[in-house]
Amino acid sequence: MLKNVFDHPDTKDIPQVLDRLLIDGEWCESASGKRFATLNPATEQVIAEVVEAGAPEIDAAVAAARKALRRGPWAIMTGADRGRILRKLADLMRDRFEELVRLESIDAGKPLAATRRMDLPAAIDCLEYYAGWADKIAGEVIPTRHDALTYVHRVPVGVVAAVVPWNFPLMNAVWKIAPALACGCTIVLKPAELTPLSALWLGQAALEVGLPSGVLNVVPGFGATAGSALVSHPGVDKIAFTGSPQTGQFIMRAAADNVTRIGLELGGKSPSVVFADADIETAVRQTASGAFFNAGQVCSAATRIIVEDPVHDRFVEALAKRANALRLGNPLDTGTTMGPVISERQMERVLGYVEAGRKDGAETVCGGARAGNAGYFVEPTIFAGVAADMRIAKEEIFGPVIAIQRFTDEEEAVDLANGTDYSLAAAVWTDDINRGHRMSKLIDAGTVWVNTYGPTDTRLPWGGMGGQSGIGRDLGRTAIENYTEQKVVWLQTRP
Ligand code: NAD
Description:
The protein has about 500 residues and is of the alpha/beta class. It contains 16 helices and 20 strands. α7 (about 195-210) links the parallel β8 and β9. It starts with 20 loop residues before the first strand and ends with a strand.
C-alpha cells in the first residue's frame, strides 16, 4: 500500500494503491521478490515501493492475456457490453477524480491544476469516445466474381503490449488501452518505472467495473528487463509504444524477430514559426505555455521558436517576462504553475543541454540553472541567437528550455522548421490565412497548429511523420484500425 510520507495538507486522502503486479485478475508478488521505489520528484521522498516485474511475470501476464483473448467472458462479449465497461471505467474516474488527480500529480510532479485540466479530462474523454466505438466496428459485404457470400469483418489484433512513458502516465496508458479494449484486444500494460501508480490505480479500477480477469494486466518494471521481455515476447500481437526514439529503435528491432505489429509514438523538437503579422501577444502566451507546460516534458513541446526579424526582439522580451512569471514549486500547492522535472537523471540531462547551449555560443535570455536544492526543479530557460546546427536546436531536451531562431523570409522559415530529424508537431502564427495554409503543407509534421499551440483531441489522429518522431497514429478512428485486423469469410452457397 502507498506510504503516507507527505507532509502536505492535500495528501490526507491520497488513494491507497496496490503496489503489486496485476496478472490474470490477481495482485501478485514477483518470483525475484524485488521491489523498486517511486519518488515524488518535488520532494525526492519515496511514495511507494512497487513490486518489480521480471521475465517470469511478463510470461505469466502474456499467458493470461492470451487466455482471456480466446476463452472466458471477454472472448464472447459483444461490443455493446465492452463499451459499457469502458463507460463505467470513465464514470469511476469521474467519481474519484480528485484522488486520482493527486496521485498522478505527486508521482509525476504535475501541478494539480494541470492534471485537473488536462490529464484526467483527456483520459476520461478517450475512454468515453472508444466506449462509443465498441459496438460500431463494422465490416462490409463485398460481392466477388464467385457465387459466394463474401464479407470482411474486423477482428481484434490480439494481445497488445502497451509500453508507456512517465510524462503523461495515465493519459498515455488510456490512449492505448481504450481503443484496444473497444476492439476486443487484451493487454499487458508496462508503465514507466518512474510513474507506475496511476497504471496500478487503473488496474484496480478495471477490476471494480467488471473487466474480466486477464484482459488488462499491469506489470510495473524497468525497460531493460520487463519492457524488453515484453516487446520480445512471441505471445504479443501488437506493441503500442510511446517513449524515446532510442527505445523505439530497440523495439523495432525486437519486433522484427517475431514480426510483431508496432506503433511508435516517439520524440519531438517542434517548431513554432512566428510571422510579423501575427497576433504577437497570443503567440507569446500560447508558445510559452506550449514550451513550459509539464516543465517542457511534452513530446510536442514548443522547443524551437522561429521568429521573423521585425518582431524578434519584442517577442523574446515578452516571452522572457512570461517565463520569469512562472511559479515553480510543489505541485500540490495551488499557486504552483510549473513543477519539477521527473528525476535527478532528467534534471542532469536538461542542465547538460543548457551547458551545451552556452558553450555553443547561444545567448541565455533567462534561466539556465537548477532552482533550489531539493526536488528536481529547473528554471524556465530561453536561449536566443541559436544556430541551426547547435545541439539545443536539433536534439530533444525534454525540459523547460526554449531555443529561439530568427528568419527573414518564408523559405528560410520552412528550412529551419524542417531542419531536424523530428516530425511530430509544429505551429505557425500569422494573420494571413493563405500563408498559414501554405506553411501547413510545407512543414513536415503530423499536426500543424495555425494560430494556436498544443491542443489535441481524442477524435484526431496523433503521431509523427517518421524519423525520430516514429510511425503510426494514436487516437481517432485510426486507432480502431490499428487494434483490429481484417478477416475475410467466404460462405460458399450452393446453386
Ligand atoms: P523511454 O523510452 O525511456 O521509456 C518509455 C517506456 O519504455 C518506459 O515504460 C520504459 O520502461 C520503457 N523501456 C525503456 N527501455 C525499454 C526497452 N529496452 N524495451 C522495452 N521497453 C523499454 O522514454 P521516456 O524517457 O520515459 O519518455 C520520454 C520520451 O517519450 C520522449 O522522447 C518523448 O518525446 C516521448 N513521448 C512521445 C509522445 C508521442 O505521442 N509521440 C508522447 C509522450 C512522450
